[in-house]
Amino acid sequence: MATRGLALGGGGITGIAWETGLLLGLQDLGVDVTTADRVVGTSAGSVVGAQLTTGNALSDLFDYQVSPPKPAPLARISPLVLLGYVRAMARARADLEAFGREVGQWSAKRAAAGKLPSVEERFDAVRERLPVLEWGPGGRLHVTAVDVETGELRTFDGSDGVSLLEAVAASCAVPGVYPPVPIQGRQYVDGGVRSGSNADLVADCDRVLAFTPLDRAFGPLRSAGQLLGSTPHLVVSPDADSVKAIGKNVLDPARRAASARAGRAQAAAVAPLAREIWG
């Protein structure tokens, strides 16, 4: 039987909302992507992947996204943070793991200096987004993060004693914005440091869908399409209406509802192509 892979990429709070809306819209149109044999979640995608693989109804997840967000400090990827990324990229000299080390250790220094929220605060924020805190059955979900010391990619699937909460918090640890997450004596940052989608982790599947709120290729980073190569696949990124709904700050909860609705609306154009790939 053909195996089907789903790559859910990073994109902040609005990325979670957009992916949720897109998934529900596709399901409404008869393309049930929740049946994927393997799900790779990166950053925002790790939240959505965790929600999907633990049996939560997409309609319930969508209702949460369009509900009023709780008051919370507004985070953003500031010009200072962007400058930190640029400097790390320059020092890495097109070496992807070197970039992971540079940006990860820079983020760890910012956290140690008290410039970032605490790890406990991040656990609380991620816990609110996970209706179920246990890994789903079958080992379908693979959550990505980057080791601060080595810059290497690590995937968590529940088989190594790492909790779902720890794995998702690590995958969502945007460098310079949120602190690295300690796991088993090591520190980890956002899986998006290595790739916005890490879609190559499903490239050995027979057919793949990749939903990528931020699918960029620059320096050593590769787009989902580049990572999937000749694997039959469809990469979906926000259309013009979704981009407008998402706005300029992907970490702004106030844009959550509009992003979810835009993703759901975009499904109408995506469904015929997705159905062809998904079967």
Main attributes of the structure:
alpha/beta; eight-stranded mixed beta sheet; 10 helices; 8 strands; lipid degradation; PNPLA_dom; lipid metabolism
Write the layout of secondary structure elements.
Layout: E1 4-8, H1 12-28, E2 38-42, H2 44-53, H3 58-66, H4 79-92, H5 96-112, H6 119-129, E3 141-147, E4 153-156, H7 164-171, E5 181-183, E6 186-190, E7 207-211, H8 224-228, E8 233-236, H9 240-246, H10 256-278
Parallel strand pairs: 1-2, 1-7, 2-3, 7-8
Antiparallel strand pairs: 3-4, 3-6, 5-6
Helix pairs in contact: 1-2, 1-3, 1-10, 2-7, 4-5, 6-7, 9-10
Summarize the structure.
By secondary structure, the protein is of the alpha/beta class.
